[in-house]
């Protein structure tokens, strides 16, 4: 594994209403050296984030979920902690220019199925800049 893709224990919330995908995301990121909190509901993710926003260095979320979309959740999280980056995973063509995305704290849109191919480099880039702050 490339040294740039190894985490330093940063805590990532991984949100997907499909439990299997959330657990897969958790295992993938933990293997890279990140601490991961898998969450299976956008409402539960917002509740956990609201209770302790400083706990999370980043949120990775699916876009299409019941109750609240990933974009809606990211907008709510931005109100609580504007500096926490959110990565949106989508099965449909979305970008940072898509409606609602620019108002959120979404820093990147990853299209399925290439999420796990692109996530290591994205995390390296984001956390490398974090240490420069």
What do you see in this structure?
With 133 residues, the protein is of the alpha/beta class. It has one domain (3-128): Response regulator (Rossmann fold). The protein is built from 4 helices and 5 strands. The chain has helices at residues 19-31, 42-51, 70-80, 115-130; strands at residues 11-15, 35-39, 58-62, 86-90, 106-111. A 5-stranded parallel beta sheet has the order 2-1-3-4-5. Strand 3 (58-62), helix 3 (70-80) and strand 4 form a beta-alpha-beta unit. Helix 2 runs parallel beside helix 3 (70-80). The chain starts with 10 loop residues before the first strand and ends with a helix.
Rg over C-alpha atoms, rounded to the nearest angstrom: 13 Å
Strand content: 15-25%
Q: What is the count of distinct domains? A: 1
Number of strands: 5
Largest β sheet strand count, sense and barrel closure: 5 strands, parallel
Mean pLDDT, nearest integer?
86
Distance from first to last alpha carbon: 26 Å
Question: Overall 3D geometry?
Answer: globular
CATH-defined topology: Rossmann fold
Q: What's the CATH architecture? A: 3-Layer(aba) Sandwich
- Specify the structural class: alpha/beta
Report the top-level CATH class: Alpha Beta
Instruction: Classify the helix fraction into a percent range.
Output: 25-40%
Secondary-structure element order, N to C? EHEHEHEEH
* Poorly predicted residue ranges: none
The neighbouring-strand order within the major sheet is 2-1-3-4-5
CATH homologous superfamily assignment: Response regulator
